[in-house]
Design brief:
The longest helix has 12 residues. This protein is α+β, with helices and mostly antiparallel strands. It has three domains: 96 residues, D-Maltodextrin-Binding Protein, domain 2, CATH 3.40.190; 76 residues, D-Maltodextrin-Binding Protein, domain 2; 101 residues, Alpha-Beta Plaits. It is 29% helix and 33% strand. Helix 8 packs antiparallel against helix 9. The two termini are 31 Å apart. The strands form four sheets. Strands 2, 3, 4, 5, 6 and 12 form a six-stranded mixed beta sheet that branches. It is an enzyme of class 4 (lyase). It catalyses: prephenate + H(+) = 3-phenylpyruvate + CO2 + H2O. Keywords: Amino-acid biosynthesis, Aromatic amino acid biosynthesis, Lyase, Phenylalanine biosynthesis. GO terms for molecular function: prephenate dehydratase activity.
Length: 298
Amino acid sequence: MTQDTTRPDPSAGPILEKIAFQGEPGAYSHLACRQAYPELDPLPCQTFEEAIAAVKSCEAKLAMLPVENSTYGRVADIHALLPGSGLFIIGETFVPVAIQLMGPKGAKLEGVKTAMSHTVLLGQCREFLAEHKIRAITGADTAGSARQVFEANDPTQAALASELAAEINGLEILARDVHDNKHNATRFLVMSRQKIEAEPAAPKVLTTFIFQVRNVPAALYKAMGGFATNGVNMVKLESYMVDGSFTATQFLADIEGHPDDPNVRLAMEELAFFTSYRRILGVYPAHPYRDSVRLAAD
């Protein structure tokens, strides 16, 4: 990998060997940190902004940020935060969302009356909850719900969260893998203060960038034409408003390939003719999970 040796502001102090994430210990973001960077100490933060700030202040080396879920879609706020974060995308990872029903020690599945979790996870377990006549209770997040169930110590109250949350909070798993969609996964981006890019010769590279099209007819269509004619595969394109404006739309895109590849370079040159703003957020290796999903789909 090609590494930018630019160091953070020395006044910020030494970079700590930590990886920041949003949520409580046991959250799926915590699980992503532990799987991808077991050598770094996880640093829980209350908000995505705090996780980003921890990296900028050198309190953490990296940040693990969820961007999209295969069932739920994109994670709110993240796409708006990335461009102004001042950080670079240096990698991605995927975590299969295996949801476990957990309760205090001695609890039994047949005695559970309520299950608490984040509203997104509750929506992914509707069939299981209906089958067992368990009432859904909305919690602030998954790991926090597990903690509340532990503190309540009521065998009729359960939580829906990761196995790691059960381990951390001393809860027993009453039913495993209760999610309706068995192919559910969340994609995370790894963010760093240092610009670390994949080598042009790397086998599978993704480039993430943002752009704003000019306010002219068919600008987006023409901007995208260069990727098609040059054989560049665009794997994601999302739009969102900028500063609450209904006329200024910004796009975030993922493409397969390195900016130094001849076809990618030509596509980006054509993009420049029809855009008023462009910025690359990261050039990084594609995670092997992508290949496993393609094989399963074939």
